[in-house]
Amino acid sequence: MDIPRAWEQALQQDLRGVLMVIGAPDAGKSTFAQYLFRRLCLNGLRTAYLDGDPGQSRLGPPTTITTALNPENQTGFPPTGQWRRWFVGATSPRGHMLSLVVGTARLAEAARRMGAVCVVHDTCGLVDPSSGGLALKLAKIDLLRPAVVFAIQADGELAPLLAPLRRSRRVRLVELPASPARRPRDMSDRQAYRRDRFASYFAPARLLEIDWTRRAVLPRPFFQPHQLVALEDRRGFTRGLGLVHSFDIPARQVTLLTPLDSLSGIETLHLGDLLVDPQTFRDSPLHFPPMDSSRPSLRPNTSGK
Ligand SMILES: Nc1ncnc2c1ncn2[C@@H]1O[C@H](COP(=O)(O)OP(=O)(O)OP(=O)(O)O)[C@@H](O)[C@H]1O
Ligand SMILES: [Mg+2]
Question: Which of 160, 184, 208 delimits the end of a domain?
């Protein structure tokens, strides 16, 4: 791994609180964030990693964001201690920004409650203002109040974001060069990465039958085969993911393929906007609203009578 001198220098300061890493796709955000995390752990600071990228997730399966700490005296990555997870419901932040922002804030709070004095927050690569990237990053900065924002760029691609941040002095900004050793990944590399993450996540999965009338269903009980579903506790944190295997409308039962072995503590089924094929683990977005599987009598009458 190449460690540019500026990366090394950026760590020669007292770092505490939320440390947010931003940059365009492939800038080296996750590489720098992991380097920062390991260095803070080695310095004996109780540090959480907050993986805020629901697409190329490092800690959890795609569609989720996760915070985790190491057990005392451990410094490795990925951290293997306490964790909390939030379901964004899609692999892209577009159309899911509220969930991403709320989840990130909830996870930062959870990390502090778990004892973290530093929270290294790796972010997604959405920075383009015309796609909402500027609004997303500013919203997170205002909500999380990071102690430092580390901005990694190669060629001025963060200018629309950094220009107002430098002038507003709203946050301490540390600008870092991207490493010449970084390697861009195309769409098929990214999809292959997600497929591998889903495949290993669902490897121990088995079928679990759920009576959906005994739990909240978000946004409503309209299930589709292969639809991704989060199983959430009463605080809204995700304990596990499932894939819709089948559903029985008269019995109000849905059968999920999930690695969770128990429904204890699960209060909510949260349906995502993604289909994942349980054979190939390729994902595809859910583009059209599913049919109402719980109330077939309410389907529009197309018979003309
Ligand atoms: N300093 C570095 N030394 C060696 N390899 C690097 C370095 N920085 C990045 N890379 C490589 O470049 C690729 C992209 O890096 P990384 O995943 O950290 O970028 P990212 O900004 O997090 O990307 P994404 O937008 O997908 O989240 C990876 O294969 C990584 O190993
Ligand atoms: Mg990354």
Answer: 184
